Amino acid sequence: MALHSLRGFRDLLPPDSALFASLEAAAREVFALYGYQEVRIPTIELKELFVKSTGETTDIVEKEMYAFTDGGGREVAVRPEGTPGVVRAYIEQNLSQNGRNAKFFYIGNMFRAERPQAGRFREFTQIGAEHIGNASPYADAETITMLVRLLEKVGLTGCSVELNSLGCADCRKTYRETLLNYLRLNAATLCEPCKGRIERNPLRALDCKIDGPALAEKAPRLSLCPACEEHFARTQQLLKISGVEHKVNPGLVRGLDYYTRTVFEVRSSALGSQDAVCGGGRYDDLVKSMGGPAAPAVGWALGVDRLAMLLKDKPAPDHSPKAFVVAASKEAGAKAYELLTAVRAAGVSADFSSFDLSLKSQMRSADKSGASFALIIGEDELKAGTCAVKPLKQPGEQKIIPLPETPSTLSQLLKG
Prior knowledge:
With 416 residues, this protein is an alpha+beta fold.
């Protein structure tokens, strides 16, 4: 029986792997501009971490999490998202005590046992940002602006930013009872999962893919307290100062229990009905609820797979070698390998096939490699201490260059 990958998992091969690498590199550049530092969190954590932070009634915990008992009898889970791990590290490593801005980013693979669909896989790459310890709307606006600037940098166009405020714990305490009464009266119209969640977490019904759209229009709306109203208004004002266009969507609630106040999503019509490219929000109570200090926070997560799908028609980064070294005789193999080493040491990417193959076979490989020049050493070149530099992409005459000068001459040719 032939072995194959599991459904929802995939091999990431060139040129897609090059696109992913370029998106991650762009993210690192943007994070550096905004003062964010990288953290690398474990792939496996205690299951309790995700249940406690993400919420028992979320789809991630109820249906999508890869959880199991390890050899030590511990209930563990492969990470479905990055925020809980970052917050756990923030608390465990006492990062609030180092006197620095707690601005972190992560790039890594996440795992969810959800139904594969366009741009969604059971193993996927996520880029995330977390700003911990800043309660001001300036942090909200900066975080959203940074996300928009990243999307602009990678060339994504035609996107829209949607905002909403979920209020603070006091706002939601009153609203929870109002919404609970409404859902009880209309329970017969709800899907089975929402019926089961009414008493445990009525707010989750607003994020339901089945009932959510109708509830957004008919259910009672959340009323913000004066402080949350001011925070939300100020965030929008600061986004305008940053030049970030946005609109308020009262139906936007996001699917995780830890969100408070500002939530946001970036959407693209190119993705169809499941049009969210990325999103995030403020989670002012999460750090404290997990045993840490009172540390308000805001962050977002971006699915690289979905972003790459939107950018698939853009030219992929060219990682072809600039030079391809060829030995026209077996005797020239050692000298050809010496040249290959020297060219790379000069900072020029170079490749070869096998110096034991025929000249014709090596030149065929050179053409397929996408290299700009073939560097050929045959019997005559070996005796004379020279190298033949042959253009492969554009018309031009073959040049004979002294071997010691080949790396520098090649660099000039590539520039010119």
